[in-house]
Amino acid sequence: MMRNKRSLLIEQLDQKLKPFTRAKSVTVPERGWVNAIRTTLNMTLAQLGNKLNITRQGVSRIEKSEAKGTISLNTLKEVANAMDLKLVYALVPKNENIDQLIQDKADKLAKNIVSRTHQNMKLEDQAIQDEKINKTIQELAFEIKREVRKSIWD
C-alpha cells in the first residue's frame, strides 16, 4: 500500500523532533537559562553587556524577561551568540510523538461522532451492539487520521 504525502510528512517531522525527546524532561532554571549559564561561566552582567553592546541593566532586563517568559527568540539568539552558544528551539508533543498526537485526536473525534450517532439511534430504538460501536469508532478514527481532518483540532 502506498503511503500518502501527509503520513510521510508526519514521519519526517517525528524524525526531526526525535533529538528533542529527552529535552521535554529538562526543567528551565527559575531565573532562566541566560542567568544560569552566565553565572556558571562566572561572567558579570557588565561583561555580557559589553558583548551585546548594552548596559549591565539591559542584561538584567533580558534575564528578568526570560524568567517571566516574555523574552523574544531574537533576543535569546543574540545572547546565545554573544556567549558562544547556539539557541535550540522546538515545539514537541507532550506525549509520544506527532503521529500519536494525531491518533489520540482522531480517536477522540471518532468516539464523539459515533457516540452522537449511536445516541440518536437509541432514541429511535435502533441501537447497535458495543462490539459494532467499537469497530465503527476504530474504522472512523483510521479514516480521520489518514486524512488528518482539520476537525480534529476543534
TrEMBL record:
Q: Which superkingdom, per the lineage?
A: Bacteria
The family database entries (Pfam families) matched by this protein are listed as: HTH_3
Can you give the residue ranges of the HTH cro/C1-type domain?
34-90
May I ask which residue range the UniProt record assigns to the signal sequence? none
Q: Where are the transmembrane segments?
A: none
Q: Which InterPro entries match?
A: Cro/C1-type_HTH, Lambda_DNA-bd_dom_sf, Mobile_mystery_prot_A
Query: Sorted alphabetically, which NCBIfam families does this protein's record hold?
Result: mob_myst_A
Q: What is this protein called?
A: Transcriptional regulator
Q: Which lineage?
A: Bacteria, Pseudomonadati, Bacteroidota, Flavobacteriia, Flavobacteriales
